[in-house]
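TASK: fixed-backbone design
INPUT:
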């Protein structure tokens, strides 16, 4: 049986995606040969300032959203957030970070880094940690390159991939998939060729149950439901 293909859409600035990363790592440990996770980006925070100023206007504005993020994070022991998150050094857009991450992924495609290095996952996690714990403005190219340097990634190659337009083309594919699957929430997991999806803060056992159901009742076979 072929591995179950999972489309995972997230925004690098989303607190729920930051929380959910540990669930993906657990999935890969529990189903090493049964799943294949494809990482895609949905820019929920494509215009971060306007989104939060409008959406939280009657709930305390940026301070209200900051308190919401801190309260949410306090319920999970495996993450932490800076006390001034979303009130200082606020990124303008997640699009810039997503573009950079697409360029990082293309390092693998071009054979510039080994696939076993999992550069996309490591860099995305480094971006999230830098923003949520250190208030790093990860929409800033200089900050992105600093993180790449710490991870010992080839900065010139990344910049070349962005300058050539290849990273834009790769990110555009994500935008097309977002439209095709009507993704509006971060994170979103899509299984079974789009017939099953899990949106937002979904517990590990729920995700696991969906995978086990697909393993026991492969697509195309009859089921009792």
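OUTPUT:
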């Amino acid at each position: 049986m072929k591995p179950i293909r999972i489309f995972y859409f997230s925004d690098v600035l989303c607190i729920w995606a930051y929380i959910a990363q540990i669930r993906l790592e657990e999935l890969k440990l529990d189903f090493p040969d049964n799943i294949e996770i494809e990482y895609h980006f949905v820019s929920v925070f494509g215009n971060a300032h306007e989104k939060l100023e409008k959406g939280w206007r009657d709930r305390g504005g940026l301070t209200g959203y900051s308190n919401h993020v801190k309260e949410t994070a306090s319920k999970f022991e495996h993450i932490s957030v800076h006390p001034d998150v979303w009130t200082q050094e606020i990124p303008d857009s997640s699009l810039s970070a997503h573009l950079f991450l697409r360029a990082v992924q293309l390092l693998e495609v071009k054979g510039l880094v080994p696939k076993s290095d999992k550069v996309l996952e490591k860099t995305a996690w480094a971006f999230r940690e830098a923003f949520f714990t250190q208030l790093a403005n990860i929409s800033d190219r200089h900050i992105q390159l600093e993180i790449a340097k710490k991870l010992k990634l080839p900065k010139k190659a990344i910049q070349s991939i962005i300058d050539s337009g290849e990273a834009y083309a790769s990110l555009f594919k994500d935008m097309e998939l977002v439209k095709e699957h009507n993704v509006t929430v971060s994170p979103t997991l899509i299984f079974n060729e789009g017939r099953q999806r899990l949106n937002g803060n979904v517990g590990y056992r729920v995700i696991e149950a969906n995978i086990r159901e697909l393993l026991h009742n492969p697509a195309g076979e009859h089921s009792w439901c």
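COMMENT: The two ends are 22 Å apart (CA to CA).
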